[in-house]
Design goal:
Layout lengths: L1 E5 L2 E8 L4 E5 L10 H7 L4 E5 L15 H14 L5 E6 L1 H12 L4 E7 L8 H17 L1 H12 L2 H6 L1 H13 L2 H12 L15 E6 L7 H10 L3 E6 L6 H4 L1 H15 L1
Parallel strand pairs: 3-4, 3-5, 5-6, 6-7, 7-8
Antiparallel strand pairs: 1-2, 2-4
Bound molecules: D-malate.
């Protein structure tokens, strides 16, 4: 992992390969390790960058953040490392960051990839769940949050037949500092609704979703696809909310086809 200081934080990021830049932004409460299979696959042909967002993984920080400020961090990192314009690929929370990036820095994108994510803000019930989770992390720590989230992140097939994937997610979520989990839950709860603004996304956009995603179900991806003008939708079989880890055999070639199309 490399380090670069931008906007008052030292961001740790993976970088490998050469060619057009492809940037992978992780979900909550994970880190860049979730993209290991994509890093290995795509760095054969592309310059692959996968940062740990502030507070996550090795990017230590206790400062509060928002989806927009996380997008500002990524833009500053990519500007400093001369990796712009790029194709930006974000999963779930990483997708919310990618949408904030697309709104604020449209000229820095060659393409957008939205994985297991949604354009909607949290509903009143969703916000109440975030508040309950904030209470849980304050009183019982990261392990309790990990235990509660894990079953809904993965498909039944992954939970039953792929213990190494379950273990990998467990390790990442349990390692995430409680303070970061709390900061992220606040930022997730308070994030902007993007259901109207996504109609202005002008770059080619690939939307990918696991067929069994319970957190951001395929209906939400269909809704984004019907609003984003130049979008393609692909459903990943045998996968839940962690499609790139659960079924890289389907995920990677579909993303590669898109990257070839974007050029
Ligand atoms: C994620 O995977 O990043 C989170 O589940 C996103 C969310 O809870 O909205």
């Amino acid at each position: 992992m490399r380090n670069e200081t931008v906007r008052g934080v030292t961001l740790s990021y993976h970088e490998s390969g050469a060619g057009p830049s492809v940037v992978f932004v992780h979900g909550f409460p994970l880190d860049a390790r979730m993209w290991e299979q994509q890093i290995a696959y795509f760095s054969r042909r592309f310059r692959v960058i996968a940062p740990d967002l502030r507070g996550f993984g090795r990017s230590a920080s206790v400062e509060p953040f928002s989806m927009v400020s996380l997008a500002d961090d990524i833009q500053a990192l990519l500007a400093k490392t001369t990796a712009l314009p790029c194709v930006l690929c974000g999963l779930s929370m990483g997708g919310y960051v990618a949408l904030a990036f697309a709104k604020k820095y449209p000229g820095d994108l060659r393409g957008l990839v939205l994985v297991d994510t949604r354009a909607e803000a949290d509903s009143a019930e969703g916000k109440a769940n975030r508040n309950r989770m904030i209470e849980l992390v304050r009183t019982a720590g990261s392990k309790a949050v990990s235990g509660q989230m894990l079953p809904s992140l993965l498909s039944q097939k992954t939970l039953q037949s792929h213990p190494h994937i379950v273990e990998k997610i467990r390790q990442m979520t349990e390692c995430c500092p409680p303070r970061t989990i709390e900061n992220a839950l606040i930022a997730l709860r308070d994030r902007e609704d993007q259901t109207c603004s996504i109609a202005s996304i002008a770059v080619p956009t690939l939307i990918l979703v696991g067929e069994h995603d319970q957190i951001t179900p395929p209906d939400l991806s269909h809704a984004m696809h019907s609003t984003i003008p130049r979008s393609i939708l692909e459903i990943i079989a045998d996968a839940g909310h962690m499609a790139p880890l659960e079924n890289p055999e389907e995920f990677n070639p579909r993303l590669e086809r898109f990257l070839d199309w974007v050029g």
